[in-house]
Amino acid sequence: METPVGAMFMFALLFCISSAEMAGKVGVNYGTLGNNLPVPSRSVELLKSLKAARVKIYDANPKILKALRNTDIQVSIMVPNELIANISKSQALSDNWVQTYVAPFYADVKIRYLLVGNEILTNPDIGTWFNLVPAMRRIKSSLKAHRLHKIKVGTPSATNVLESSFPPSNGTFRSDIAAPIMKPMLQFLNRTKSFFFVDVYPYFSWAADPKNINLDYALFESKNITYTDPVTNLTYTNLFDQTIDAIAFAMKRLGYPDVRIFIAETGWPNGGDVDQIGCNIHNAAIYNRNVVKRLTAKPIIGTPARPGWPIQSFLFALYNENQKPGPGTERHFGLLYPNGSQIYEIDLSGETPVWEYKKPLPEATNNEPYKGKLWCVAAKGANTSLVATALSWACSQGNKTCDPIKPGKRCYKPNSVIWHASYAFSSYWAQFQKTGGTCSFNGVAMSTPKDPSFGHCKFPSVRLA
Ligand SMILES: *[C@@H]1O[C@H](CO)[C@@H](O)[C@H](O)[C@H]1NC(C)=O
Ligand SMILES: *[C@@H]1O[C@H](CO)[C@@H](O)[C@H](O)[C@H]1NC(C)=O
Ligand SMILES: *[C@@H]1O[C@H](CO)[C@@H](O)[C@H](O)[C@H]1NC(C)=O
Ligand SMILES: *[C@@H]1O[C@H](CO)[C@@H](O)[C@H](O)[C@H]1NC(C)=O
Ligand SMILES: *[C@@H]1O[C@H](CO)[C@@H](O)[C@H](O)[C@H]1NC(C)=O
Ligand SMILES: *[C@@H]1O[C@H](CO)[C@@H](O)[C@H](O)[C@H]1NC(C)=O
Ligand SMILES: *[C@@H]1O[C@H](CO)[C@@H](O)[C@H](O)[C@H]1NC(C)=O
Ligand SMILES: *[C@@H]1O[C@H](CO)[C@@H](O)[C@H](O)[C@H]1NC(C)=O
């Protein structure tokens, strides 16, 4: 059908007006890797109390979708990573997934985003990378077939899809994925008017280099520190904008300057291991409140390279999740404790001005690198069978890591998996820290400043300076 020029013009005009008013709205990632979290119906009440405009889940859990029925909360669901390879090869399987997990809920749950996998291009299974865009296309066409027109299809990327992000104008996708994956992905996103979803964590950039990056610059608190990109002359006042613009420039370099960026995750940890810098309630509250203020501001701020562009977002995460593997920070990204109480006051609608948050924040005590001795022990409450696996791995790394816990040796007693693992973790860390060994062991270990040695058994330690 031909569209009269006048109608086209009217449409363009209306679109401009409505998009100018459409400021960013902030949602929350609802991760469920905890054994002590509230049920979905309670979680939805808590989302409302935070004034979250949206929620993102890491699957399409029907129990959660049922709890979201007849609410105003926009919902993002996800195709699990392990289904991507098969879906990329079979339209029938894609149709079936949409038929089962999306169609029954669409009428009364505001499903608006369907993300295919999570950080696939960081997943060690390289084969899946090449299945990603074909799977996205199949899912889109299944949605079309089911007339589920309001759902945008995307996939969240970590910022390590970039091989260069500095200066922002030098933003470039990794050469292993730029041509074969990013280009067809951007073509798909551009054609379907979807978004480039990205997980942005100034915390990790700052924590990796706190000497050279200013903390206030990472927290949106810097008054006098700015960075001017020498190529574009654009001036930056925070690390977040720098990262977003690096992505924008990388997309432009591949010929797609107009694809919108959607923050799939951002946040700051409210706690972590003793040797992890800057993870505390104080910084977490400042960062998340500032993100909300910025992304919901009217008039819309955007970024230096994209002034006035609205940015939609999801904070990470709803709860502190006690079963997330990795360093302690991973289990401390929540806005809420597992019992549902707020870790600090926050209003995701952006309607509460910062001065209305009444309760004083606890002082930040770990904004400087930890100095002193540390040991690595089995984490409290860790799954014993996983600890046993980590123990045998640590002992297989050589250099006599585990000699003292052999039968009859000085650290054999007490003969328990947890005790032996704590010895082996400390011993492994002490030997291999210099060459990149960490105190993590898939999340079953944690560092401690408290010497676990007793009797004749002295645990090796790591000294941080
Ligand atoms: C993918 O398909 C293969 C072959 O049909 C099947 O064996 C496998 O279980 C499927 N994988 C998943 C995760 O469903
Ligand atoms: C720009 O990015 C390239 C890699 O894409 C890198 O080799 C180069 O060093 C970067 N330039 C600057 C000034 O950092
Ligand atoms: C991206 O989409 C816009 C609007 O639909 C279109 O005008 C443009 O040509 C597309 N860009 C590319 C490189 O395909
Ligand atoms: C920024 O201001 C702070 C406090 O006013 C001051 O201590 C600091 O030296 C200033 N930094 C720069 C780069 O000007
Ligand atoms: C950036 O600023 C410098 C000095 O003011 C000027 O010479 C240059 O042309 C500017 N570059 C751009 C891209 O605006
Ligand atoms: C919820 O848990 C936190 C952290 O364990 C605790 O400080 C707080 O008092 C608890 N709140 C309620 C209402 O139980
Ligand atoms: C511990 O982990 C193993 C292996 O992943 C799992 O089969 C088992 O159910 C877990 N046990 C508990 C108590 O969570
Ligand atoms: C293992 O021990 C040897 C001898 O003490 C030492 O030279 C080597 O650096 C150690 N290897 C590692 C990875 O620490």
TrEMBL record:
Boundaries of every X8 domain copy: 374-459
PROSITE patterns xrefs: GLYCOSYL_HYDROL_F17 (PS00587)
Signal sequence, start to end: 1-22
Alphabetized Gene3D superfamilies for the sequence: 1.20.58.1040, Glycosidases
Topological relation to the membrane, as annotated: Lipid-anchor; GPI-anchor
SMART domains in the cross-refs: X8
Protein name listed in UniProt: glucan endo-1,3-beta-D-glucosidase
Species of origin: Erythroxylum novogranatense
